[in-house]
Design a protein that fits this description.
Blueprint (H helix, E strand, L loop, with lengths): L2 E8 L2 E8 L2 E9 L9 E10 L4 E5 L6 E4 L27 E8 L8 E3 L4 E2 L3 E4 L5 E3 L6 H18 L2 E4 L8 H24 L4 E4 L4 H9 L4 E6 L2 H9 L5 H7 E3 L6 H4 L3 H6 L4 E3 L5 E6 L3 E7 L9 H23 L3 E6 L6 H15 L6 E6 L4 E6 L26 H17 L4 E7 H10 L3 H6 L5 E7 L7 E6 L11 E2 L2
Helix pairs in contact: 8-9
Length: 499
């Protein structure tokens, strides 16, 4: 398995991807003028306290006040241990000045969400000064390594007065290197306190880093072969940056200087296009249908062209296994968050049902966002949740259709003709002897070939003239009609009389 990171800056947008063997695993796109703010720390002023919801709104200088809730889990992606509980009662009042960290970016019309529990992420550690716990990334599965790293994390926690989580990249790092990063993260926290002390609210006190910083800190791993840069500007930023793994990053960095688009050259542009489709083809001929609702995402599994080799149960089981792995990739790639409901194909064997849930659970462990699988229901439905911090990957790639307004469908030919007929009745009721209809070319052809209005022309509009004017550029649902009493009409050559 060959993993590569691709970074580019064009059209005023940062683009960053992680791919494995030509398949996208993660995709990020953000405007230079509107960078990611998750992880930023602000000094804000409490504007409103909602006692009944144990929440507050805080002015941090953004276009909307940030939402602060005591229900927020501590940043860092790990569960707090017993004895380290987050308070259940909000301890702020209107006018208070507090430090908060963004944990969820603008999503749709919703403002940002913030937490009073600060977090500082390094390459090997996450430091949380508000708690006193030690933890090790759940991705480190070697028991001997976990025991060793946990002891070191506890030592750091006692030494630097705060909580430390050892990240996956820290598994092969020595104690001295971890302590050095712990000192750096602690100093960042002290710098934030000093900045907040000398700055009136609202104010930005700490930025989590640009796209390159976040990709190398959060996405890069030892099994990444190359880091490709499609922009010389980004490449030079890479060369000038400082950090513990600078030499390693530079060794793997490649400036893409061909006279073509980098993503097209590596065949990734087609992968990006697939993000906008709700149908996802599986390698064995089966497919997924991914549909969004306001509250959740629904994924339907279908056998498609796959017919199997033995029997129906084995065919269904194999399809569901393929689907479980691909579903884990898709939710990570599309950055789908919240509740996800998967309608797997019905299986009779309990062993098969359990195996599918196990496969999905294992595949989701590669996701940096926390996922929680709830098991399979009697109807073959599997529910799981995925923590969401920012908009889905497709939000920068698509917009609501200006024609259907998000419905995803258009009126049928028959219904459009019905609306045309209604308009004709209104026109002739006003006393006009002729009607001119400007309409989409496809609908014009349908009116003539289907004979949909022929009966009315022969019976109730015998003495009326109806002219159809086709237009290639008209939207399918749009038409324009005018009445006329002139004996001779001025019409374009393409106009046809309906009879």
């Amino acid at each position: 398995m060959q993993k590569n990171i691709y970074l580019d800056n064009n059209g005023g947008n940062f683009i960053a991807t992680l791919a494995e063997d030509g398949k996208l695993l993660e995709y990020y796109m953000e405007k230079n003028s509107n960078p990611n703010i998750v992880g930023n720390i602000y000094k804000g002023k409490v504007i409103t306290v909602l006692g009944g919801m144990q929440a507050a709104f805080v002015n941090i200088g953004l276009r909307k006040n940030a939402y602060l809730s005591v229900c927020e889990t501590a940043p860092g992606g790990e569960e707090l241990k017993e004895g380290e509980e987050i308070p259940s009662v909000i301890d702020v009042k209107e006018g208070d000045e507090i430090l908060v960290q963004i944990v969820k970016d603008y999503i749709g019309n919703k403002g940002v969400k913030c937490s009073p529990y600060l977090s500082f992420a390094g390459v090997y550690l996450v430091y949380m000064p508000c708690f006193h716990i030690a933890s090790v990334s759940r991705r480190i599965t070697n028991e001997a390594a976990r025991e060793r790293l946990y002891a070191w994390a506890e030592e750091l926690t006692h030494t630097f007065d705060g909580s430390f989580i050892i990240r996956t990249a820290g598994e092969k790092i020595g104690k001295k290197e971890l302590r050095k990063e712990a000192e750096s993260l602690r100093q960042k926290y002290l710098d934030v306190l000093a900045e907040a002390e000398s700055t009136p609210a609202p104010a930005l006190c700490y930025e989590s880093g640009d796209l390159i910083t976040r990709m190398l800190r959060d996405v890069y791993s030892d099994d990444v072969r190359n880091i490709y840069f499609g922009s010389r500007e980004l490449y030079e930023i890479m060369l000038s940056r400082k950090g513990k793994r600078k030499d390693e990053y530079i060794k793997k960095s490649v400036l893409f200087d061909k006279n073509t688009d980098m993503f097209a050259y590596f065949g990734l542009d087609g992968e990006v296009d697939k993000l906008l489709r709700n149908r996802v083809e599986l390698d064995n001929g089966a497919y997924l249908i991914i549909d969004k609702t306001e509250a959740l995402t629904v994924i339907d599994v279908n056998t498609g062209k796959y017919t199997g080799e033995n029997n129906l149960e084995d065919t269904v089981f194999t399809t569901n296994i393929y689907a479980a792995k691909e579903i884990a990739r898709q939710v990570r790639l599309r950055n789908i968050g919240g509740i996800v409901v998967v309608d797997f194909i019905d299986m009779n064997e309990q062993f098969h049902r359990d195996k599918v849930v196990e496969t999905l659970t294992e595949a989701l462990k590669d996701d940096r966002s926390k996922c929680n699988v709830l098991g399979m229901s009697a109807l073959g439905l599997v529910e799981f949740t995925r923590k969401k911090k920012r908009e889905e990957s497709t939000s920068m790639l698509e917009q609501v259709c200006p024609y259907c307004k998000g419905d995803g469908k258009v009126f049928s030919n028959d219904y459009i003709v019905l609306k045309v007929r209604t308009a004709l009745l209104d026109i002739f009721a006003k006393g006009y002897s002729a009607a001119v209809i400007d309409v989409n070319e496809q609908i014009a052809d349908y009116i003539f070939t289907s004979g949909a209005l022929s009966s009315d022309v022969r019976k109730i509009w015998v003495n009326k003239r109806i002219y159809i004017v086709p237009h290639k550029t008209y939207h399918l649902e749009f038409f324009r009609m005018r009445g006329d009493n002139s004996k001779v009409l001025e019409l374009p050559e393409r106009a046809k009389l309906l009879f």
